[in-house]
Amino acid sequence: MDLNFLSSILFATIVAGTPLIIVGLGELVTEKAGVLNLGAEGIMSVGAVAAFAVAHGTHSPGLGILAGMVAGMLMSLLFAVSALTLMANQVASGLALSIFGVGLAAFIGKPFESVALASVPPVSIPLLNRIPLLGHALFEQQGLVYFSWALLGGVSWFLYRTKAGLVLRAVGEGPVSAHSIGYGVVAIRYQAVLFGGAMAGIGGAFLSVFYTPMWVEGMVAGRGWIAIALVVFATWRPLRVMVGAYLFGGCMIAQMFVQGSGVKINVPSQFLSALPYLATILVLVAISRNRNTIRLHSPASLGQSFLPDA
Amino acid sequence: MDIRKIALTLVSGAVLLAAPTKIGFVYVSPVGDAGWTFQHDQGRKEMEKALAGQVTSQVVENVPEGADAERVIREMANSGCKAVFTTSFGYMNPTLKVAPSFPDVEFYHATGYKTAKNVGIYNARFYEGRYLCGVVAGKMTKTHVAGYVAAFPIPEVMMGIDAFTQGMRSVDPSAKVRVIWVNSWFDPGKEREAALTLISNGADMVTHHTDSTAVVQACEEQHAAKGVWSFSYHSDMAKYGPTSQLTGTTHVWGEFYTKTIKDVIAGKHTPVNVWGGFKEGMIKLAPMNKAVPADVQKMVAGLEKQIVAGKFHPFQGPIIAQDGSTKVAKGAVMSDKDIDAINYYVQGVDSPEPKQ
Question: Is residue A82 part of a domain?
């Protein structure tokens, strides 16, 4: 197996994992504040169509990302109002948002179905892209790939190294206590939900503007749900979300390379297609099986409504 | 509603005193801009145009196969449709369930195999187009490797892979076809990755049996760097691969719909069992790319004529399976029944056969 071959597997793995990382980290922050937003699939769809429309209209992928982000925030605002202000059940509101978002995106997207968008050239980082094997895979990627790495650093730093992050985690652990010492639980949760929505919107934008530059109904194809599942299996730890996302992407790409290489193996392709899901769950469960760390990292008030008294 | 058109028909002294005949169409996915359902909808529009004033049609799209389908089909028959077209394989049993309650309504089910008194079936011989695409691929390839992005290992898909391979090897006996199963009809991301994987494994001719335009688009991106060409399926996708799409197998339902509805309007009770190809005009090749040399274009056009005339068949012997066994002897032609149930790779497919 030559280096080129490995390099292209690695390259494709990173591309496939990127939307999952961005959406997963957004969801992680939301859940750390104690809010379970199951609407990622719908938010991603709306983000994808908004980003596509704007990128197509303005010829600027950057504005497309921005549009995806804003659309994602608006969608998550809907969820926040119903789940945080109106105290609706979070699971039900999230599911509703998911279904609504997929449908809304299809509706808005009708006129864009027949439109082709030019693909965006990758951003290479000089010098680093000359590293053998890793250079092409790591440093000749789309800008959003670098963003996903920065996001990992930013989210980890924020959650574990800043006061605001501590407060956010406190709100997720014990909203009553946080409230009693004077923190605005609902306001903080609003911000966390909006952040999650923004990231899901950007994840959608990555799909429709950079990954497969097109808009078609159903193009998110379950990635929102995978991102949510990743957060849980990664036991709410940012680095593990990234590990899980690359593992998932890597297995998907590797099984395709096995199928496409002409190597004779005696395994049904259906099993190969299921492999990314199996491998990701097994590995993440294996590395996070310690009960104490699970208890330590999972937000205690996840999914529960909080009504501030008085 | 085209009230004006109807009025015109009446005023112009047409003998048609009756109201326009209502026709129903059930689609499995959104119409979109390309793909399976899009082609059916093009056919419906063509039929409406050809029979302007005599028909109106009603569409329900994105109907899941199963209980929902039965409800939609029943509702259509109830609302006065004289004919209902159900355009996905999974509508077979729902259609058969509804049909007996509406003996005056004609039902037509695409790609199925069960018929009834008022249920006809229709399908197209897509493999004829696949074979010709394979011939073009064999003439154009430099690496002697083609890539095939496939959805699910069912006969309909296997048939296409085998026909493409037979076609390619008829002009390039050393050619190999590699297959990646994505186990999904529609997932642009996966389809794209599969295409890129095939390309980095040496394929310079890529086609697909999935529903999105992602494969054609991925080939367009890689065309300049790697000399990759694509063949579209379902629809002409040249818009997504203006320089790199060589041709494609497209579905054409308009003529069939027009003819069938004419019979329905005339009150002829003709349950159909149509499996049409180039001859019946139910499939067509997408316009050839200028990059295809004139002699190849001529050769393909000649083959198409021979298929129409019944002098040539893509599945004529010798057909040798991947494992070396002879499936069709020299001089014989595979029967329709065997084509419809094909579940093995022919020689030249360089991937392990899927488990069934």
Answer: yes
